[in-house]
Predict the structure.
Amino acid sequence: MAKWGMVIDLDKCTACQACVVACQAENNVPISNPETAKAGRSIHWLEMIPFVDDEYPHVRMRLLPRPCMHCENPPCIKVCPVGATQISSEGIVGQINARCIGCRYCTTACPYTVKYFNWFKPEWPKGMERYLNPDVTVRYNGVVEKCTFCHHRLQKARDLAQYEHRELGPDDYIPACVQTCPAEAMYFGDLGNPKSTVSILSQSKRAFLLMEDLGTHPKVIYLSEGV
Amino acid sequence: MDLKKAFEHDEKTLLKPILESNRNYYITVCLLSLVVAWGFFAYFHQLRNGLGVTGLNRPVYWGFYITNFVFFIGISHAGTLISAILRIAQAEWRRAITRSAEVITVMVIFFGVASILMDLGRPDRIMNIIKFGRFESPLLWDVTSITIYLTASTVYLFLPLIPDIALMRDKANKRKWLYTVLALGWTGTPRQFHRLETAISVMAILVIPVAVSVHTVVSFVFAMTIQPMWHSAIFGPYFVVGAIYSGIAALIIAMALIRWVYHLEDYLKDIHFNNLGTLLFVMTLLWSYFTFSEYLTTFYGAEPSHMQVFWAKFNGEFRFEFWGMILCCLVIPGIFLSNRKLRTIKGCVFASAAITIGMWLERFIIVVPTLANPRLPYDRGVYHPSWVELSLLAGCFAFFILLYVLFTKFFPIVSIWEIQEGRKHAVAEVAGRVRSYLPDAYNIKNDVDVETKTFTNAETFIGNT
Amino acid sequence: MTRRSVPAMICCAFLSAMAISLFCISSVQAIEQPIQYNHYKHTQKLEIECVMCHQGVKDGVRATLPSVEICMGCHSEPQTNSPEEEKIRKFASKNEEIPWKRLFEVPNHVFFSHRRHVSVAGLDCTKCHGDMAFRKTPPSKAPMKISMNACLSCHRKLHAKTDCVSCHR
Amino acid sequence: MKKDILRRDFIKILSGTTTFGLAYRYGLFPHLISGPVRDALALENDDISLRPPEEKWETSICQQCQGGCGILVRVYGDRAVKIDGNPLHPINRGRLCARGQSGLQYLYDPDRIKGPMAREGARGEGKWKPISWDQALAELGDKLKTLRNQGKSHALAMLTGPQRGLAKNVSDRFMEAYGSPNLIRNQSDRPSGKTPAFHLMQGSDAGITYDIEDTNYILSFNSGLLEDHWSSVQLSRAYGKFRRGNKDERGKLVHIEPRLSVTGAKADQWVPINPGTEGVLAMGIASVIIIERRYDEEFIDERTLGFEDWTDEKGASHPGFKTLVIQEYPLEKVAKVTGVPRDMIMSLAREFVHHQPGVAIGNDGEWIGNQGIYNRMAIHALNGLVGNIQKKGGILSNARLPEIPLPPFSPDPVSAKGRSMPRIDGAGRSRYSLVQDAPENLAEQILKKQPYPIEILLIHGANPVYESPEPDRLVSALNQIPTVVSFSSSMDETTRYADIILPDSIYLEKWQLDTSYTLKGNPLVSVAKPVVAPTYDTRDTSEILIALAGVMGKPVSSAFPSAKSEDLVKASLHPLHASASGEAFGAQLEELWTKLLEQSGWKVRSQEPFDKFLADVQERGGWWDPVYYPWEWERALSTPSGKFEFYSLTARKYFSDLKGMDKDLALQKIPSPVGMDKLDAACLPLADPGVSKENDTLYNLELNPYVIPILSGLNQTNQPWLQDISGFHVYQEWHTWVEVNPETADKIGIQNGDWVWVESPKGKIKAQTRLFKGAMPDVINLPVGLGHASGGRWTTGIGENVLKILLAEKEPFSGKVHFQRSRARLTKTNA
């Protein structure tokens, strides 16, 4: 069974945020406006987070693209009272928004703050709804949503592969952010397969996990900057 | 003979609020209803437009509603728990106050539950909790334990009500059908009394662990996560203590109001307030001890993510709430309740009012700062409640008071039969009990067995001493 | 009426009120098709395969309802003197599609692939669609209800994936 | 009685729940009904029951910036639902930036102009009435025809944005056929690198490029490398390889900039520097290299001019670069001016030499932040010093672009007469002899009616009213012109002053043939085809111009063989096919093979039929020449001397040719070092810090403007996805912010989130304070790119136009407007 995971090489990343927009375009994420942004209600499944350290002139700024970590031991699924968020046998932490009751317990339990809530009914101005991705649902008002590793792509890819009676190839299933990354800093694949690129990279001495001490076992692995 | 007169006096005084209503009552009800209606309007608005009408945001996903939830569930410990403890401890001064305490419990749990419903993004899918409930989630533990608590408390409120309802059925002229139904055919035979007393004692014992579990489980909602300053083993007892603390305070306020409005000075006496005030002071110390332990461990451990929350409370954006809480829950009660001279009715009520506010702030200070300071850096962990949340807070309080007022208009708020029973039996019983505590040597010895006989011999017994 | 029946009456009132409101919420209207199509005749008598008209069942993610073009493949010339048949040509002459109404529908948040179930897993149409093929007139509601429980029980039986995200999106 | 009560209660409960049920059912609680998904996708549901829409990926080119990335558009039925990179396209290899991804919001922008419109009411009032295309074209065509018949064809002017390929050819051809010299292109020189600094030192007309991928060391002088590069995806890819390619050494990046930008954050070392003194620092580094004799002597001897003092053929002696550096840029002085410690300058110089091949990169030609020509020359001189020209991992000059012309045509005498008139903007003459276009002069010349008045102005792809330092002046100039036509697809600031709007289709709706370069200098031609039908009633500007020519009739109309862009694309590809060089895009493995074959003397593409070539190019997205010959020195160094000129002969010729007033004006601002002829000094990289840091008590801060990477290019910002991530590093979006160092803020008494007036001598704007440790003390950083007065719901009134308070200056040589830093102060205000 595959264990899907992602590796982000911060040494290559240029913080261009193409991944951020690609994710929003792929996943029908509601668009924000000055009001929602001001209220802190914009939704970015994938977000670029700045860490600013030390004082001028020795300031260091680290820029970290942060998708859902797809923890092996996710704090969010334990607390859901209705099982609307679950981890699949392939390690994808999904959000079944048709079942979600909107209690926002998972959003508060997630140490990475990767879960988002639809405070209003997502709406698109007339004409703009045309770009919505037919493979992804538009979420309702009052439910939680999050990064899904674009698992609809997996559903489609696997469907096609099975129909064509072949194995799922390593490039068949790749999330939108990884596909677009201009610096080729993001990798995606099967962490369970020791020969996959992500497995090899995750063994790198530069590899680190975000808040590893929490014991959530993230499947998003960062490679630090520097030699 | 005197006893009979006293009984008549009890019935007359205590039934008066039900039988007669003055203008102030109607004005109060109208005003409260207006606030409640406004609250309903606010909720309707939220239901139509979604939770966006609140001041909640990311990362402060929980705000007033969850604060209210914890607060109301805390208040609910007033009644059932205190009355059960007092009953089991056979504290005789309980007789006048148990009813008003138990009513608080039952009424306020509804608002606790309602707060959760208000907080849901999809209240229409509430049945999913039953259909797809996962017992791994602390929220489901809450649902279970609150349901049990509500049932138990209702039964516990209802059982001691039965004789009084029967009295109403026989004495009052209005709503006879209601009292008839609710009296469940009570005629006041010794057999019935015996059964009732047994049932009440069983419930009193049962309800204590349930009450403790309820607030422990409420604390687990927070403590089971790994969020800074939530993930704490002390949270269970801390919440229980806080709950009892705020519960007693609420009870004192309610009693004072009842006493004042219905002129029941004769029934709710200084001694009641003094006793409750002393109990409250004990709780003040206990609560302070827990608060101290909680914050000291965080401070001493000095984990960065915890300290971020810690400082946000101590001298950051939540400093007013935090020091307000210390003032209301530690300083004011500490001054007013520790000192016998200040522990008057007014003093107790003032301290209780402070504690009620302080405990609400404590709940707020637990819920919001942790969310506003997540582990990953965000700039906008600010939370300003919107008019909807404020209206719903006001609506909840008004609705609670309204229901309470209405209750006093339907049922005697001081248990008549228990007072009467007190007049009839308790004095003798206490005397017997006290005697049984004393060393047997040199004790006055009767031929008859103390425990069965004292009831009838009460007056002579007192005369002898 | 006795005293005892009062609570019972109140309960009755409450329950019936609930029933009415539930009915209001979930009332489903009977579906009427534009043409009184006879499945039985086509599939059993003429032995036409389902796939002939419902294209995409075997090779597409979605199955389809037949377009007027497909019907006209046979019915461009009258086969019988049924007035229903005439309707097809009417639609065709107006260059309109036949406004078939869907009976079976998976919700938008479900990813369901026909080819995966029919071609890969080799399931029979009746598994989900019931006795559709034997209907002589169009049913007013789906002969089998498609529910998640039905999906899941079959998936469990056949040891297919039961991860939420395998179907939900 | 009992019964009554009972019945009443019964009815009460019953009616209560029923009311709720009905209210629920009929949508009083709209969000509770599980239908919003259906609403949003209602358009799809109609055909869901019959046939699922056809789904395909179409190749095209992203034309939102100059990068030239190839894209694949996922088309679902009749709508575009996703844009991704074209894996075969050599520029981006399947990758795409935020802006490219956001193209969907550009396409389906609800505020686009939805059809041709004519002005009603006064200019700029914003009242429009829709008209039909036929009417619009007929009216405008008539006007043009009349003007031409009057013999005043030169009175037509056309202002365009950067244009390439087919669009460029069509506008050129239109103006040629009509007979007007006034095609004024607001040409950014960035993709081709025609920036005068490089032109003066290296010649290289096709432009130069930095081989980031294979370099070991980047010394970035406020270059905006990761934020503001002309082809950001290509650069990002190269940067990834620079850091973690297959090389042995991990490339090192040192970034020099007053603010901690994204490039600064990603660099191994960030060197804060006083604003505007990057050129001086470069000269400081040069002085270390020269004094320690660490320069590439072989290269300097063979391929440079003017390093040492030299004598020309007339015997006059001129000072060399070495003299200038040693005399004018002693290390102490440089350290003082730049604020960079002496030791650091020395270690930078040594590192730079040690880690060769490495490149020194300046701001490659954008117009914010004032890295003037001389500063850029100083930075580029470093590359010359270490002999980094035409080397793997150094500076490469672009190979020549292949020809993709329109079919030939011969203009008539009217046209010839019109074309012989002087250009309105003065480009190509006297002070502007080095540039082809000088749009900056337009306002002045139109107002002066010099050398003649303009009757009709066509504006396409340019928004000068927003970008101009003096918008009011430009507006009054526009008001002088009887007919102003805009081809804009959005109601931008300039379009508001038009008389007729003929809205252009956007890039996903039209044909285009685009030319560009890879960062390795390979030329390429990409093909874009419409992937969806026009969303609104808009047309391709090229086709509009052809239609206008058609309305005017012969001989103008005969300039175009077809009215369809599609045919012109095909016609233009014929010469490319005939040249038999290069190939259609292919996978990287194929390219390696091609390179190998061609370098061993094989002709790669045999003469395949044109149809196959066309089909190939269309399917794969374009054509390119993967083979690059680094030894073509004539192309790389096409200066008068054929060498890398530390002392620019081009500059010398330029100044010598100027006369009178013009000469004085041009030389006025150039300082003359002691003992050096002013003309000589003007030909050397005389880096100058510009605004001095004197003790200005009124304006006590230095204002450092920078371009928001996500919104660079400044137009078409009505895309909420982009607006929403503009200032992530300070948690601010959807408004203009000002970055202030916490200590400085403390001094002024402002806090994070406070609203302040940012006031420069020129004006003031409102901004929200963001405390940022990456800001230098006493320097405030302001983002440019927001504050549009018009253009759509997600851009109008979002933030402030910082250009309003920036001082603008015209650059010598090009006359290009540069917005400078200036002094400023902050005062607290209310939101």
